[in-house]
Amino acid sequence: SCLVKNKVMSSFKYKHMAAKYVSGTLGRIVKVHNNRILLYHSITSDLSSDIYDIDSSMFYNQMKILQNSKKKVVELADWPDNNQNVVITFDDGYIDTLTLAAPILSDFGFNFTVFVSPALISSNNKYLNKVELLELASNEYCSIGTHGYSHCDLTTCNKKKLRNEIHDSKSWLEDLLSTSICAMSYPYGMVNDKVKNEVDVAGYKIAVTSDFGSNKLGDDPLLLKRTDIWSFDNIDDYNLKLDGHWDWIKYIL
After folding, report:
1. Among 112, 154, 215, 221, fewest CB within 10 Å belongs to which?
2. SS in 3 state form for the chain?
3. pLDDT tens, 65-105?
4. What b-and-e string marks burial along 108-118, b requiring 16 or more CB atoms within 10 Å of the CB?
């Protein structure tokens, strides 16, 4: 499995190099200054070979760039009021969101949203348990959203399973946290009309995909795009992503 993972990482690295070249040249043609939702997964203090594990020092530097930019970091539920907003989101609910990411974000005074799946809570030592989730939710800068009940591909669910995944994840979190849950992240970014309609029926106000790109005023609040941040991204890549140079990827994914 390690050999397969290394091959996948090597392949991604070369694709990233090619995408970096396009983003630094032709990417400026398609860039737009709309509202942008950043997508993170795990923040780590160890060397990692996973494309979604961001080194904590790199994450700090990225937040420093945001602080020095003209962009405004806002809560997911509060946007958009102009075209220069940035929202910070995390999928899955890893423990390091509490131990590494949250302290950095709190120091900067940045709001952030964490999407969790109840079935992953306490499932192993990578994910938050109930006590840790409650601690994270008590952070004044943090809001919690759902990521489906079991983190399955919602587009493959029958009607009963789909309802359980969308409604039960919401009620489970509301019961635990004693607060209203109005935001959702589609697991694996997978969504179709059937899924979106059920999310609407369940009472969610905002739902985010994994589709690359930014969002303008008037876009469907249940189909918001995000900008994926990867472990291979250096500071130049991050700046280009913030400015929309990588948005062209939406045309090939």
Report:
1. 221
2. CHHHHHHHHHHHHHHHHHHHHHHHCCHHHHCCCCEEEEEECEEECCCCCCCCEEEHHHHHHHHHHHHHCCCEECCHHHCCCCCCEEEEEEEECEHHHHHHHHHHHHHHCCCEEEEECHHHCCCCCCECCHHHHHHHHCCCCEEEEECCCCCCCHHHCCHHHHHHHHHHHHHHHHHHHCCCCCEEECHHHCCCHHHHHHHHHHCCCEEEEEEECCECCCCCCCCEEEEECCCCCCHHHHHHHHCCCCHHHHHCC
3. 999 998 899 999 886 666 679 999 999 999 999 999 999 99
4. bebbbbbbbbb
Q: Which of 23-37, 102-116, 212-226 reaches the highest mean pLDDT? A: 102-116
> Which pair of structure tokens corresponds to residue 48?
């990692």
Query: CA–CA separation, 82 vs 197, rounded Å?
Result: 27
Q: Give dist(CA 122, CA 129) in Å, integer.
A: 4
pLDDT at 3: 35
Between the CA of residue 75 and those of 45, 55, 78, 85, 143, what are the distances in Å?
Answer: 26, 24, 5, 9, 8
**pLDDT for the residue 10:** 52
Q: Which two tokens stand for residue 222?
A: 């249940």
Contact 76, 206 (CB under 8 A): yes
For residues 117, 96, 233 and 105, what is the CA-based torsion angle, rounded to 10 degrees? 100
